[in-house]
Write a structure and sequence with these properties.
This is SpoIIIAH-like family protein. InterPro entries: SpoIIIAH, SpoIIIAH_sf. Keywords: Membrane, Transmembrane, Transmembrane helix. The protein has about 190 residues and is mainly alpha-helical. It has a single domain, classed as Stage III sporulation protein AH-like (Helix Hairpins, Orthogonal Bundle). It is about 65% helix and about 10% strand. The protein has five helices and three strands, in the order ααααββαβ. Strands 1-2-3 form a three-stranded mixed β-sheet, with helices on both faces.
Length: about 190
């Protein structure tokens, strides 16, 4: 009588790999978002000094750039970059969760966990859009919201709110976000 090979250890290893992968991605997402929110790091590319770079450098020395509002451009870049990064990371998360759900080797519990996480991500995205719309309806042109793990952070441009208006906006966010007050933050971009 031929003995059937035991594939159970292989399945356990696969499940652990999937779980570890999800945990690693989640940690990387958190670290990436903390880095973006902190605003302490500057994103600069180091390019080799080619002829084009020399021409651009010479132009920037002689050109009148006084009409360019550098602070506004940097703020807009922050919000645009943040949104793109957030969508890219969320897309990767959803792709991984979808792959787990579609993998015929995934057990029912892993599929259920992936499904629940996908629903949670969808709810977080909806809440973020609602918070951003709320802030914009109050006359703030740019903002981003991050809803994750039972917390909400809304970032507005520096100087967009007076101290009184900032307190009013906080109260509005508290009531709308449906989170405890200590789990909702209103932050100005570029301020510590």
């Amino acid at each position: 009588m031929k003995k059937e090979p035991n594939i159970r250890p292989l399945l356990v290893r696969i499940r652990w790999k999937e779980i570890c992968l999800i945990i690693v991605i989640f940690i990387l997402l958190l670290l990436g978002l903390m880095w973006v929110i902190s605003g302490k790091e500057e994103r600069t590319a180091i390019l080799p000094l080619s002829e084009e770079n020399k021409i651009l450098e010479e132009f920037s020395k002689t050109a009148d750039l006084s009409q360019v509002n550098k602070k506004e451009t940097a703020t807009n870049d922050f919000f645009s970059t943040y949104r793109l990064d957030r969508e890219r990371i969320r897309g990767k998360q959803l792709d991984i969760l979808k792959a787990i759900m579609e993998n015929k080797d995934s057990d029912d519990k892993a599929r259920e966990m992936a499904s629940l996480r996908m629903v949670k991500i969808s709810e977080e995205m909806e809440k973020e859009m609602s918070l951003e719309s709320l802030v914009k309806s109050e006359g703030i042109e740019e903002c981003v919201a991050l809803v994750q793990a039972g917390t909400a952070t809304v970032i507005v441009p520096a100087g967009a709110l007076s101290p009184e208006r900032k307190e009013e906006m906080r109260e509005l966010l508290f009531s709308f976000a449906d989170f405890p007050k200590d789990k909702v933050w209103l932050k100005e971009a570029g301020k510590e």
